[in-house]
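Minutes, structural biology subgroup

Action item carried over from last meeting: produce the structure token record for Ribose-5-phosphate isomerase (Electrophorus electricus). EB confirmed the sequence was re-checked against the source entry. Recorded below for completeness.
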Amino acid sequence: MTLRTRSRLGGISRLLAPLSARLRKHVFQCRFCDCSTTMAEEAKKLAAYAAVNNHIQHNHVVGVGSGSTIVYAVDRLAERVRQEKLNIVCIPTSFQARQLVLQNGLCLSDLDRYPELDVVIDGADEVDASLTLIKGGGGCLTQEKIVAGCAKQFIVIADYRKDSKMLGQQWKKGVPVEVIPMAHVPVSRAIVRRFGGEVVLRMAVSKAGPVVTDNSNFILDWKFECAQNWKEVNTAIKMIPGVVETGLFVDMAKRVYFGMQDGSVKTRDCPIH
Ligand SMILES: O=C(CO)[C@H](O)[C@H](O)COP(=O)(O)O
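Output recorded by EB:
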């Protein structure tokens, strides 16, 4: 770092001194380094902590979602269980969630023993104005939807980048659709014929060939062209032979917590729950 840069940084640090530590960290990092990741991580944590603080109680059966945001929720859940001696049973939505529950020393169970959950907390790839979600960026949509469907309350946690008026504004990778492997070509063709857009088979990153889900299926990503009636689209895609589940979660979420860039948490409630 040159002397000139050092003195510029010093001047800016003094200017930022009255700001809160968190905001100062953001502004500082935003200006001088690739901090968007740090901000998003902080936002995920804010949303996750708020949801666990507000929705988890003693004796709850809790569904544990999948993805990177849920990691913060499980951290906070484990902390509360230790500090408040809460009796909590966790139902995972994926292999990853199962590992998280075990690694954090939480009580692991399943839908056979607990088919009715008090609350499910999970992330999302995009949330629109009426709390319709796109999920499945991590490929866990089927178990996530099953577990969410068994819950009295389905609570979503996300950072500010997932907040959208209409699906497709923020999330550009399309709607994930889990399919039986032998059906991936006919299902892709049927979706494009009926709804337009483009369907791609999701490929693995450090393995040759496609992503294989926890249920041994494939994932299609449907890049849709325009806004749709998502309830109808979800039902229609589910009716195509070979489709296991879609990543459209319609009328399921009760509340979403968005961690925001300024360190606040914004909530949005579903009008019908
Ligand atoms: O649906 C999911 C996995 O299938 C995740 O909940 C969703 O992709 C959000 O993930 P992240 O918290 O990493 O942004």
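Discussion: The chain has three domains: 3-32, 38-166+250-269, 175-246.
Next step: EB to file the record with the rest of the batch.
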